[in-house]
Design goal:
Blueprint lengths: L20 H16 L6 E4 L7 H5 E8 L17 E7 L5 E5 L11 H13 L4 E10 L8 E10 L20 H10 L4 E7 L8 H9 L4 E3 L3 H9 L3 E11 L10 H24 L2
Parallel strand pairs: 1-4, 1-5, 5-9, 6-7, 7-8
Antiparallel strand pairs: 2-3, 3-4, 5-8, 6-9
Helix pairs in contact: 1-3, 3-6
């Protein structure tokens, strides 16, 4: 696994435990500024399954680069995710959004540093607000496939953290109440829920879903919480939105499949993309 060169020799190895991951993030941000021609970005979006169309509605794409051309990033490994990073001038503003389409999941086995590298790069690029999206299973039978749900809190069942050493960060208001209120201004019908991250890549068993519900969960998936923790550590304000792509195991009698996730995302794509773009424009 190699990192792109920046013109001054190879980048430090993000997988080397002696390497400071924030040094690699700063190199990545500098490379993005060089490739996109945009010195500073204001908002970053990590677009999960079903959310990709939002980038097209945000405004003018100034530049689009392959993630593998930026230090620390790797190619997307999941169908439904792009392998690019886009710089978008947000319509009606002078702000720029950094759209991260190359998400790394913990289950890929590349390590937690890779999982949160995009978030740390965004912070190094000047971003102050981060939007995290995902496709997930829902525990509420009223949330049919295609329902967007704001994340108000999370439960991290990955048994890991992106923070290293004695790094203590308050997560009380991790998912910004201010940004959730802004989203409600755009669509008052939006529900909120607690997102539970499992490691994956297998789907949860009915018993695991039942456990998630008993400990306070409403949504289950395989991303987001580690990125959110890293974002709070970096001082970013976080908005999380899940797209319910299926009812979780045991809630519905239907078997689960990734094809179902993709289809639900396609069906809801236009509506949720317009919602997200409008929320970002108001930030």
């Amino acid at each position: 696994m190699s990192d792109a060169a920046t013109g001054a020799g190879p980048a430090p190895d993000l997988d080397d435990p002696t390497t400071d991951p924030f040094d690699v993030a700063r190199l990545a941000a500098a490379r993005l500024a060089e490739l996109t021609g945009v010195e500073r970005h204001d908002v970053a979006l990590v677009l999960g399954s079903g959310w990709g169309g939002a980038a097209d509605l945000l405004g003018e794409t100034v530049a689009e680069v392959a993630a593998t051309d930026v230090p620390g990033f790797t190619a997307a490994a999941v169908v439904g995710h792009t392998g690019t990073i886009r710089s978008v001038r947000i319509e009606g503003t002078t702000k720029h959004a950094l759209v991260l389409g190359s998400r790394t999941h913990l289950y890929e086995g590349r390590g937690v540093r890779r999982v949160v590298h995009g978030v740390r790069t965004a912070a190094a690029a000047g971003v102050s607000t981060l939007v995290l999206t995902n496709g997930c299973g829902g525990l509420n039978p009223a949330w049919r496939p295609g329902t967007p749900v704001l994340i108000r809190d999370h439960i991290n069942l990955t048994a890991t953290s992106p923070l290293e050493g004695a790094t203590f960060v308050d997560l009380t208001d991790l998912y910004s109440s201010r940004l959730r209120a802004l989203a409600h201004d755009v669509d008052a019908s939006l529900d909120e829920g607690v997102y539970v991250q499992f490691r994956g890549p297998h789907y949860e068993t009915p018993a695991e879903v039942a456990m998630a519900g008993r400990i306070g969960g409403d949504l289950v998936g395989m991303s987001t919480t580690l990125e959110a923790i890293a974002a709070r550590h970096a001082g970013l304000e976080v908005l999380g939105i899940s797209l319910v792509t299926n009812l979780a195991a045991g809630i519905s009698a239907e078997p689960l499949s990734h094809a179902e996730v993709l289809e639900a995302g396609r069906a809801a794509g236009e509506r949720i993309s317009a919602l997200l773009a409008e929320v970002v424009r108001r930030m």
